[in-house]
Design a protein that fits this description.
Length: about 475
């Protein structure tokens, strides 16, 4: 089946070439040499498989003379052309003269520039004509960076109906120009080092403006990862009206496993310059809380209480590009954090004595989250972002003993550094900081067992630091 499709494609290409030749003056028909074509992969990551697939189809067509991309790459630098210029529409327009000289020196009549983006889900083929100008921009959805043969044929069937007439018209102009023998109209040849204008070199020295890539920045998809986290937590709560206030302190290291999710649901705006995403995290930790006690022999000892924590965050975030590398975002969501301390200790290492926890059995928080995010893309593979905002505390519970809390506002912040190894696999480091402000205006009189009699207004702070190392997949 595919061989029949390929045959139809070859017939189609040759037919277009012949029809175009018939439609222009007979003088140009004398120039019916094979069309000199090259295919170059300009993608920062990926793109080689689509290029190879296109090349496999083009080989063997007698209407074409395929130039190996390696032959072109060897001289690109001599004409001030690099992959960044080939990849970006704005730079192709800006340095059109360079591309025209490269085409003239190597007698290139058509260049297909291959790029992949959207995490390997889209392939782009830009067609440059014989004078280096863009004449076609073709895009197709692919899977995992792989271009199927049928899709490659479909792309090429869009290339030649526009490239063929351009080449034939160009050849006609060249024929007329040669008849006039006017050296001033002949495309520059000779030493490639002489083919870069001084003005173009000056343009190189200027800082390239931070403009949005024509392909946009955001794409729909899901990033999900899991890994290890460690951190530290310190709760301090104290009566504020008593001369000799009761207080409660709890500090402990925390560690466990965490999951991070970032799902871009919508992209919109010019060139996908804005997006709406769901972002969430889940962390569960296991640790031990210690407390100074006196054992049955009257000696000081340390009681160890099994402890655990769960921290769940869910947010909706809107992001907007400001240039090709920088974005701002605004988001809102909720956070639920629960720390639980066992009421019974582990057996003492020496006496095997077990102690009751009569001081502190845990904390539960339900808070809102509203803030801003700023992100920067260093390369296609390295992204970084920071965020900060307000943390209104709607519900707080300490040992189920201090009554209702006041609604207060804390703060949070954090940062992410993401490295994409491939279009699918990434690693990410995440830092999270949370600052809660629990306030209990009317405690009932005691906390968890009677050792701490907090019976007047109590105010406190609860500070959590968390660092996560994540390995994930993009879909």
């Amino acid at each position: 089946m595919k061989s029949k499709v390929l045959l139809r494609y070859v017939i189609h290409c040759v037919g277009v070439w012949v029809i175009c030749a018939w439609a222009i003056p007979a003088q140009a028909q004398q120039e019916q040499l094979p069309l000199r074509l090259t295919v170059i992969n300009a993608s920062e990551r990926g793109g080689e498989q689509p290029r190879a697939m296109l090349m496999d189809i083009l080989y063997g067509n007698e209407s074409l003379e395929v130039i190996e991309s390696e032959d072109i790459r060897r001289v690109m630098e001599d004409f001030g052309v690099n992959e960044k210029i080939l990849r970006k529409q704005s730079l192709r327009k800006k340095f059109r003269n360079r591309l025209m000289r490269l085409h003239a020196a190597r007698r290139i009549e058509g260049m297909l520039i291959v790029d992949t983006y959207n995490k390997g889900r889209t392939v782009q083929v830009v067609v440059l004509g014989p004078e280096g100008g863009e004449i076609q921009d073709i895009r197709r959805t692919i899977k995992r960076g792989k271009l199927e043969k049928d899709d490659a044929i479909d792309i090429l069937q869009e290339v030649f109906p526009v490239l063929g007439p351009e080449v034939l018209t160009f050849r006609e102009r060249q024929l007329i120009a040669r008849q006039d023998e006017d050296p001033s109209t002949t495309p520059p040849q000779g030493n490639p080092d002489e083919n870069v204008d001084p003005d173009d070199k000056k343009e190189d020295e200027k800082k390239e403006p931070d403009t949005l890539d024509e392909d946009g920045y955001f794409s729909r998809g899901i990033d999900i990862g899991a890994g290890y986290y460690f951190g530290d937590r310190l709760l301090q709560l104290e009566e504020v009206d008593n001369n000799s206030p009761d207080y409660l302190n709890h500090g402990t290291p925390m560690h466990g496993v965490g999951i991070q999710l970032d799902a871009t649901a919508l992209t919109f705006g010019e060139q996908n310059s804005a997006s709406l995403a769901l972002r969430g995290s889940f962390a569960i930790g296991f640790f031990r809380t210690t407390n100074q006690v006196t054992n049955r022999e009257g000696n000081p000892s340390v009681a160890k209480y099994p402890s655990d924590s769960i921290d769940i965050v869910g947010e909706l975030i809107f992001r907007k590009m400001l240039g090709s590398r920088f974005h701002l975002g605004v988001f809102g969501g909720v956070q639920n954090m629960v720390v639980s301390i066992s009421q019974t200790s582990l057996p003492d290492d020496e006496t095997q004595e077990v102690y009751n926890n009569s001081r502190y059995t845990g904390t539960g928080y339900l808070a809102g989250r509203a803030g801003l995010e700023a992100g920067y893309r260093f390369t296609e593979s390295i992204h970084a972002s920071i965020n900060a905002g307000a943390l209104p505390l709607f519900y707080a519970d300490v040992s189920q003993a201090l009554g209702e809390n006041e609604t207060t506002v804390g703060a949070f912040g954090g940062g992410r550094l993401k490295l994409n190894f491939t279009d699918t696999v990434f690693v990410q480091t995440v830092y999270l900081f949370s600052f809660f402000r629990p306030v209990f205006p009317n405690p009932p009189g005691m906390a968890a067992g009677g050792e701490v009699k907090i019976d007047s207004r109590a105010e406190g702070t609860d500070i959590v630091h968390n660092v996560q190392a994540i390995v994930g997949l993009s879909f």
